[in-house]
Design goal:
It is a single chain. This protein has 94 residues and is mainly alpha-helical. It has one domain. Helix content is 76%, strand content 0%. The chain is built from four helices and no strands.
């Protein structure tokens, strides 16, 4: 049984029984899984950085892979000023 199926089954049992003890067991196991995943990710990144010692370019690639990318919203410039004004007025009212 995979971990995902086990956790999903745990949640289904908790919802069906609505038992406090089941919820406590589920929350403890969920927190344990999250803790172990974070530690594994941290160890993986640490070993990648250790392998890149002396190579700053590779080190920065590893660091950038850990940081979530910014969501970029590029504005499109339009020549029709009336259309721009209407869109601006609609968005400012929301």
């Amino acid at each position: 049984m995979t971990l995902y199926i086990a956790v999903k089954t745990n949640v289904q049992v908790c919802r069906a029984t609505n038992n406090t003890e089941d919820w406590v067991r589920y929350k403890n196991s969920r927190n344990s899984v999250k803790f172990n995943l974070r530690n594994a990710e941290s160890n993986h990144v640490r070993t990648q950085i250790e392998h890149c010692k002396g190579n700053s370019r590779s080190t920065w690639k590893v660091i950038k892979s850990c940081v979530p990318a910014k969501e970029s919203t590029k504005l499109c410039h339009q020549n029709d000023h009336r259309r721009i004004a209407v869109e601006f007025n609609i968005t400012s009212l929301q």
